[in-house]
Design goal:
The protein has 716 residues and is mainly alpha-helical. It folds into two domains: 386 residues, no CATH class; 157 residues, Rossmann fold, CATH 3.40.50. 64% of the residues lie in helices and 4% in strands. The chain has 33 helices and seven strands. The strands form two sheets. Strands 4-3-5-7-6 form a five-stranded mixed beta sheet. The protein has a two-stranded antiparallel ribbon with strand order 1-2. The protein is globular.
Length: 716
């Protein structure tokens, strides 16, 4: 069990970009007066200062998270095996491929080892580049081997510094998005400060470095910034083309680095669809965004050797369905209010039917079942019937896949972020509803439009997109805690934009009959500055204390296990155990595994369920037969799983196995009526008694306070 212990003393005011330009004063001889020149210089100065602040905040964030990581683990002082153990669960698995590429005799041999891998899943040869999103590890390893830095920088530091460097890109992208929305870089400054002070809820990069989301989210933030810029009005054709190229590159990199890309972009496509239906976005630009999503995902599909899970994604089916339905319904945006509503309902039903039919057809043709566990999980999570499915229950019982805890909102409110966010969200939603109704009403509601124009603002396309984006990703975060990082970072952008928005303050002041342009200008800058001062005063001392707190990585049992495996087992030995531990075994020792944490494969899920019978109530003969069918030489049993207390009854791993096997669970409590007692005791407990029926198949070869390793007999 890993713990973090206290470290022992030992070794050593600006112009908005969106504002319409003032009329130029021209002298009789045709020369422009100096006022316009002064305005341009002020704009250049403002952009320069804002850019410097953005880059500075990005770099400071990188240094901040890197320092936290070092202080928490004393990473520079611990042994290599301890550094690798600190990359827990799937983090260790992904990093192992980077290590494998670094240690390969050549780049070609390293790539060959990934394409024809027979050490990640025993008695099976799989293509790692097809199954997993590890191109970033491949690129980084090639870059490390090519650059003359081997003597100065260890491979692990090159890896983690790259991830911490991406945090700079992330913060700069959030800063720029807020700046584009509000027209002032003060908004970007506030967004970045909120991101840093709410670090617990906005990122987890300092302790889960190799996770796919830490690679992907910076590119997703860049994509959102580029989309925000694309949706501005009066862009020149060259600007539009360059922005579309930036969106494509960011979308491609986001898709390449995270296996859940298709689900995130499906939500994004849904946001575009909603806004397009209500005439809030230019249809031509929305079409380009659909095409970019499709082309980016298909390019990733090619690079991943035509990964079937991508081809069968709902995103491709949905985007294709929208484009087909739009072709069929050419007059969708014409007619009266009732006529438009009828067409809209028909359009939604048409898209839904096409999506399901296309997706069903593709999955039938390709015989796809890779993502079925996700839909089983969603079905059970939202109450569409109870399930005994082991994979679905495994997700349901993990806290990360549960509802967002309520204490998240209290933490976010301490920095005023959540309070301001809710206030801005409410105002923007009201405006969006009014604008949507006006757009659907058409020319028949001219008087209503004129009346409302006096009290409301026009919702710009970029603001409309970010509004729907934050609402949809907010719903995702509320339902699944692990996805909160997609929402909370954008929450910083949206709240800071609202606080620095001329339109929002104009609306508020008009509603209370206090509007003047001077008063709007003063409030627009004074309230964000006061908020920044409050955040600095309240949280700066805490950040300094956090940076001064020194701890040390401490996990002697796992270190002892890894060292024993390297010293006492052959390089070709096959190990069985929990998914999380085996990822570390592969990274630290290079031994062959029976299963691993990358769960997006039906055969692997079935294999994992079989391997986990070591924690179920099964006979030694059954367990031995199952393990040997996967070529297992050694099995590792963990007391923390066998005697688990982290989860409540019904969610312990042994309970999930009992339910899936039709057996009554251990301990006091109710059982479903059709569950029956097992004929055998729990394997992981009974094997420690060294009974003859067990010792004939299993010999204990290693033991410490946490782990028990048994060698399997090789019967003829």
């Amino acid at each position: 069990m890993t713990t973090i212990r206290q470290r022992r003393v030992g070794k050593g005011t600006e112009a908005a970009e969106d504002q319409p330009s003032e009329e130029k004063s021209v002298k009789p001889d045709g020369k422009i007066l100096s006022d316009d020149t002064g305005g341009k210089l002020w704009n250049v100065l403002s952009v320069t200062v804002g850019g410097i602040v953005a880059i500075s905040l990005g770099l400071l964030t990188s240094v901040y998270v890197a320092t936290l990581h070092e202080n928490d683990l004393w990473f520079s002082n611990i042994k290599e095996v301890e550094r690798e153990i600190s990359f827990r669960t799937e983090c260790g698995l992904y990093y192992s491929y980077y290590k494998q590429m670094i240690q390969a005799a050549s780049i070609q041999q390293g790539l060959h080892g990934l394409v024809y891998d027979n050490k990640t899943e025993s008695v099976r040869t799989i293509n790692i580049l097809e199954r997993m999103n590890v191109y970033q590890e491949v690129f980084l390893s090639i870059l490390y081997r090519s650059l003359p830095i081997q003597q100065y920088l260890e491979p692990v530091y090159f890896y983690i510094y790259t991830l911490f460097g991406l945090q700079a890109v992330y913060v700069i992208a959030l800063y720029v998005t807020s700046w584009l929305l509000s027209g002032t870089w003060l908004s970007g400054l506030l967004a970045a400060c909120w991101y840093i002070t709410n670090r617990i809820d906005t990122t987890r990069v300092e302790f889960t470095i190799p996770l796919r989301e830490n690679w992907a989210l910076p590119f997703f933030a860049v994509q959102i910034a580029a989309i925000t810029y694309l949706l501005r009005t009066h862009l020149q054709p060259v600007q539009e083309r360059l922005t579309l190229m930036a969106i494509f590159i960011a979308t491609f990199l986001f898709s390449l680095t995270w296996q859940f890309n298709q689900f995130m972009m499906l939500i994004q496509a849904l946001a575009l669809f909603i806004l397009d239906c209500f005439d809030m976005l230019p249809t031509a630009k929305v079409t380009w965004l659909y095409i970019i999503q499709i082309s980016g995902l298909l390019l990733v599909c090619v690079l991943q050797f035509f990964n079937s899970m991508i081809l069968g994604s709902l995103l491709l089916s949905f985007n294709a369905s929208v484009l087909i339905a739009r072709t069929i319904q050419k007059n969708l945006k014409k007619g009266s209010l009732l006529n438009r509503l009828g067409k809209l309902i028909l359009h939604v039903l048409l898209v839904l039917c096409f999506t399901l039919l296309i997706n069903k057809f593709i999955k039938k043709i390709l015989n796809l079942e890779s993502d079925e566990h996700i839909f089983k999980f969603l079905k059970a999570k939202f109450g569409f019937g109870a399930t005994r499915d082991f994979d679905a229950n495994l997700y349901l019982c993990e806290e990360a896949f549960g509802l967002l805890p309520l204490n998240t909102f209290s933490r976010l409110s301490d920095t005023l972020l959540f309070c301001i966010y809710v206030f801005v969200l409410f105002l923007m939603t009201v405006v969006a509803v009014i604008v949507a109704f006006r757009n659907l009403s058409g020319s028949n509601q001219v008087q209503f439009m004129e009346k409302m124009e006096e009290r409301t603002i026009t919702l710009k396309p970029d603001a409309a997109y970010n509004l729907i984006h934050t609402v949809l990703f907010g719903c995702l975060a509320l339902s699944t805690m692990r996805m909160k990082y997609l929402w909370t970072s954008h929450m910083c952008v949206f709240a800071s934009f609202g606080l620095c928005s001329t339109e929002i303050w104009k609306l508020i002041l008009k509603c209370i009959h206090l509007y003047t342009s001077q008063r709007t200008y003063v409030i627009k800058y004074s309230i964000p500055i006061i908020t920044l001062l409050y955040i600095s005063y309240k949280f700066w001392p805490g950040i300094m204390d956090e940076l001064s707190e020194l701890r040390e990585f401490y996990d002697p049992d796992t270190v002892e296990l890894m060292n024993w495996i390297k010293s006492n087992t052959p390089n070709t030995a096959v190990f069985a155990g929990s998914m999380q531990l085996l990822a570390g075994v592969k990274l630290c020792t290079g031994r062959t595994l029976t299963n691993h944490p990358h769960y997006e494969d039906k055969n692997l899920r079935e294999r994992t369920k079989q391997i986990y019978q070591i924690y179920a109530k099964r006979s030694p003969e059954d367990v031995y037969r199952i393990l040997r069918s996967f070529g297992t030489d050694y099995v590792i049993l963990e007391d923390s799983i066998c005697y688990e207390r982290r989860h409540s009854r019904g969610c312990r791993l042994r309970d999930l196995l009992d339910i899936a096997n039709g057996h009554i669970m251990d301990g006091l409590g109710e059982n479903e009526p059709d569950l029956k007692p097992s004929l055998y005791p729990r394997f992981c407990e009974e094997i420690k008694k060294n009974l003859p029926s067990y010792t004939i198949h299993f010999t204990r070869v290693f033991q410490n306070k946490t782990f028990h390793v048994y060698k399997l007999a090789k019967h003829k």
